[in-house]
Amino acid sequence: APAGRSAALRARMEERLLSARFRYINQQLYTSSSQEAVKLFQNDPEAFQIYHRGFAQQVGRWPENPVDRIIRYLRRRPASLVVADFGCGDCKIANSVRNKVHSFDLVPLSPLVTVCDMAKVPLAAESVDVAVFCLALMGTNLQEILEEANRVLKQGGTLLVAEVASRFEDTRAFMTAMAQLGFKSVSKDFSSPFFFLLEFSKAAPPRPRPCAGLRLRPCRYKRR
Ligand code: SAH
């Protein structure tokens, strides 16, 4: 029936528009500072909904979601460890483990979220055992963000980073920069073609100087 056909066409056009908006917002998040990201979502709350829907669709196509790997990792370790989830999204980690989890994001997708810029989280220095960035190393001020993770981590605490594989231009330079920021490499898993999973331990406070090798490419999701 023509009515059914035009409804289907309309739905397809709407889907295309949402997908285009997702890719646009995604690009903005990767090319602006975290302070600018705060303003982006404050000025356009709908943008956040569109972004998250698009993000979940993209990762849903991967054979494995890195957040599940992080949950498995935490379940193997004592539940007494305090966790900070930077850029927590829908708080899957907090909802899946028994640990105390501080969940930080720009907009509350869940009542468990503490709304803040992850470059400045409301936690005391050396108060956290595990800091997590799961697909959340966004923003042009990565160094500031990782320095904040270093500040809240206890000496010897764990930093877990899951990030889109294609974002790494120079993995060696990235690891060197992480060492300069006080993070010692514990394990690296490059086995997934979709994401890298890196574990570090906090060895020292960051050295106060720019780390050039920290640069990651913006993640460009495919047009569907
Ligand atoms: N970790 C979640 C969500 C990843 S999407 C998961 O793996 O499912 C990246 C998240 O980082 C988004 O929710 C986005 O809002 C958040 N984010 C980006 N920049 C941020 C910032 N400056 N401060 C806090 N959260 C930020």
TrEMBL record:
Q: Summarize the subunit comment.
A: Component of the eNoSC complex, composed of SIRT1, SUV39H1 and RRP8.
CDD domains with a match to the protein in the record: AdoMet_MTases
Tell me which stretches of the chain form a coiled coil.
Answer: none
Protein name (Swiss-Prot/TrEMBL): Ribosomal RNA-processing protein 8
What is a single molecular function from GO for this protein? methyltransferase activity
Which UniProt keywords are present, listed alphabetically? Chromatin regulator, Methyltransferase, Nucleus, Repressor, rRNA processing, S-adenosyl-L-methionine, Transcription, Transcription regulation, Transferase
Q: Which organism is it from?
A: Asarcornis scutulata
Protein localization: Nucleus, Nucleolus
The UniProt record lists the keyword Hydrolase: no
rRNA processing among keywords = yes
Role, per record: Probable methyltransferase required to silence rDNA.
**Cited Pfam families:** Methyltransf_8
GO aspect biological process, one term: cellular response to glucose starvation
List the GO terms this entry assigns under cellular component, sorted alphabetically. chromatin silencing complex; nucleolus; rDNA heterochromatin
UniProt EC number: 2.1.1.-
Matching SUPFAM superfamilies, A to Z? S-adenosyl-L-methionine-dependent methyltransferases
Tell me the PANTHER family matching this sequence. RIBOSOMAL RNA-PROCESSING PROTEIN 8 (PTHR12787:SF0)
Q: What family does this chain come from, according to its entry?
A: Belongs to the methyltransferase superfamily. RRP8 family.
